[in-house]
Design brief:
Layout: E1 2-7, E2 14-19, E3 22-28, H1 30-33, H2 43-53, E4 62-65, H3 69-82, H4 88-102, H5 105-113, E5 118-121, H6 124-133, E6 140-146, E7 153-161, E8 164-172, H7 177-187, H8 196-202, H9 211-217, E9 219-221, E10 227-229, H10 245-251, H11 264-292, E11 296-300, H12 307-315, E12 321-324, H13 333-345, H14 370-379, E13 385-386, H15 389-401, E14 406-409, E15 423-427, H16 434-442, E16 452-456, H17 460-463, E17 475-478, H18 489-492, E18 516-522, H19 529-542, E19 546-551, H20 563-571, E20 577-580, E21 583-586, H21 597-605
Parallel strand pairs: 1-4, 4-5, 6-11, 11-12, 14-20, 16-18
Antiparallel strand pairs: 1-2, 2-3, 6-7, 7-8, 9-10, 13-21, 14-15, 15-19, 16-19, 17-18, 20-21
Length: 606
């Protein structure tokens, strides 16, 4: 039986294909259109999911959409009526799109897919809850979902057991932790639904000077974690902006213009709101634990991508085990919707072993075989060498140790926002200049942004203060004291971006200014095996089980999908070597007489 799950029309559209209840494929539309966070109907993703199983649309038993458009429409209309006439401008902008398109999802699915079979609809937070619990390794667990807003709900919790989920309580719009955080994302100069992780990375440079003010004026938090936003300061209900003038007056600041200088006040605001969100999440988790009494917790929704909050939640030991859906945002709703149909609607059994999840390392996208890659290289007259696996791992380890930056294109593409060793840019974390070099010459992004370490799972407790798996790069942890550098009193007194100048550990390029890192643990059985073998070889030769792992893309673009995407990124950045499966392309050899300079120049022009 084949079930197709779809998320679309808000951000991060995606498709997921289940085969007899198992995730066969899951892909985000942005990877094909090259439009970051693309919200369009995921036509390309659906096609590729079907191609992976070599089936047509006629083989689908059910198609499931991840939310209920009429309920969402109800919320928009009621909100605008409540705030009338202030919300008129937003209402007039939204209505044509809803009336012409978003209300008629069933017809769109039938038209786009040429599909006449069963079409089901799940509620938004049901889809998030299903994506959190069903793929998890737990037979029974509490779940907590937090995001901007679905139909009405912005936060929900409940219980998953065997093959069923039950939502026990919800917090509704406009009281939303996701929208609260996004309002500050906008205020600090980053793009909503895209730049939240930038503000999270900015927080350690500041001090929580505004936390008391935020609690006094903007958010009223109860002991159980429920909260009310003071809507006098926010504009997302009645206008086209996240905040209003009263919000600006509260902080005596204007919203930072994108790309402008980041003043200390914005650093302090970032730190303050990050700490507030962490405290709210922990209060909610304690309440969920008190009511359910369960030892396992599953998380999903956009707020669950806040890896700093996740790390603090883990260290609170409220629950024995925490599992986070790697595609926690709306893309993951496609998985939840499909699995909800399989288990809840069709009543199919579910058996979890308590150890391994059902996400297959989140390596759920398309894959290019060696022969396809060689054909691409030959067709475009690109010089390369081909190495067997053992030679490849040894050669690339040496190149990384010598300071070279590697574009690493292997196996099935990742699902979700993190590169996990299939579409990654790799480098040596021991090089104190590598963080600056990667930000400026490869990613073309803000200099303050930290990079994540990939580490062999059995070595993680030697290097970081954690003793659990973190395969999806969704938990932060601090470098162990043994691996840190001793700081002088003058170093400790540094403020703001001056902190960047300090070498803090043996792996300085993945150590943030508060000694933290967003850790990815890599195992042979549960991760990308070729990536594991590369890190193992690097550790064997250089006594360091850690590599820098950042997504294979430049700022503003989605992670690369195809060999052509990878080669274009390689050509237009400071990446030194491109490794696609067993093929190695050197930047220094690109002007070889056999290379197709016309093709390369066209890529550079693009």
């Amino acid at each position: 039986m084949f079930i197709l799950g779809i998320s679309a029309f808000y951000h991060d559209s995606a498709a997921c294909l289940l085969k007899n209840g198992n995730i066969s494929a899951a892909i985000q539309e942005e990877r094909f259109t090259r439009i970051k966070h693309d919200s369009a109907f995921p036509t390309n993703s659906v096609r590729e999911c079907l191609n992976i199983e070599n089936i047509g649309v006629e083989s689908l038993d059910y198609v499931v959409f991840y939310d209920k458009p009429f309920l969402k429409f109800e919320r928009i209309v009621e909100t605008q009526l409540y705030y009338a006439p202030a919300g008129l401008k937003l209402f007039l902008k939204a209505m044509p799109l809803w009336i012409k398109k978003k209300l008629w999802i069933k017809a769109i699915i039938q038209e786009q897919l040429k599909y006449q079979g069963h079409i089901l609809f799940a509620e938004h937070h049901e889809s998030h809850a299903a994506s959190a619990f069903y793929p998890s390794p737990f037979q029974e667990a509490a779940f907590l979902t937090m995001d901007g807003v679905g139909e009405w709900a912005s936060t929900s919790y409940g219980l998953g057991k065997d093959n069923s989920i039950e939502i026990h309580a919800e917090l509704n719009f406009p009281n939303s932790l996701g929208l609260f955080y996004s309002a500050f994302t906008y205020f600090t100069g980053f793009k909503v639904n895209s730049g939240e992780y930038k503000m999270m990375g900015l927080a350690p440079y500041g001090e929580p000077k505004y936390k008391k003010l935020i609690y006094q004026e903007l958010i009223d938090v109860k002991n159980d974690g429920s909260f009310n936003l003071n809507m006098e300061y926010f504009g997302f209900c009645s206008g086209l902006k996240m905040i209003n003038k009263k919000f600006e007056q509260l902080f005596n600041l204007s919203p930072r213009k994108p790309e402008s200088e980041i003043y200390p006040e914005y650093l302090d605001i970032s730190r303050s709101v990050q700490e507030v969100v962490e405290e709210v999440v922990i209060k909610i988790a304690k309440h969920v634990k008190k009511l359910t009494g369960l030892k396992n917790l599953c998380l999903a929704g956009g707020v669950a991508l806040n890896c700093v909050a996740n790390g603090k939640l883990l260290r609170e030991h409220i629950f024995d085990n925490i599992w986070i859906q790697p595609a926690s945002g709306d893309a993951g709703g496609a998985i939840g919707a499909a699995m909800l149909a399989w288990h809840q609607y069709l009543g199919k059994e579910r058996h979890a072993n308590g150890i391994v999840d059902q996400m297959n390392g989140s390596l759920l996208g398309n894959k290019y075989k060696n022969r396809e890659i060689e054909r691409f290289l030959n067709d475009n007259k690109i010089s390369f060498i081909k190495l067997c696996d053992d030679e490849l791992f040894k050669e690339i380890s040496d190149l990384i140790a010598s300071g070279k930056i590697i574009g690493w294109f292997q196996g099935r593409m990742e699902f979700g926002p993190r590169a996990l060793g299939s579409r990654s840019i790799l480098a040596d974390p021991r090089d104190p200049q590598m963080q600056k070099k990667l930000n400026q010459k490869i990613k073309f992004r803000e200099s303050f942004r930290p990079f994540a370490p990939s580490i062999l799972e059995n070595k993680v407790s030697e290097w970081f203060e954690m003793d659990c798996q973190s395969p999806y790069m969704l938990l932060t942890s601090k470098v162990t004291p043994e691996k840190r550098k001793l700081l002088t009193d003058n170093m400790k007194k540094l403020k703001g971006f001056d902190k960047l100048s300090v070498i803090r550990s043996e792996i300085p390029s993945v150590t943030h200014v508060d000694f933290s890192a967003r850790v990815q643990t890599v195992s042979y059985k549960r991760s990308n095996q070729r990536y594991y073998n590369l890190i193992k070889e690097f550790n064997s030769k250089y006594r360091c089980p850690v590599l820098i792992n950042t997504s294979f893309n430049v700022r503003g673009e989605p992670i690369v999908c195809s060999p052509e995407d990878a080669f274009r990124c390689f050509v237009n950045t400071g990446i030194d070597y491109l490794v696609m499966e067993n093929y190695v392309i050197s930047k220094s050899n690109l002007k070889h007489k056999n290379s197709n300079l016309t093709y390369i120049k066209s890529l550079q022009a693009d």
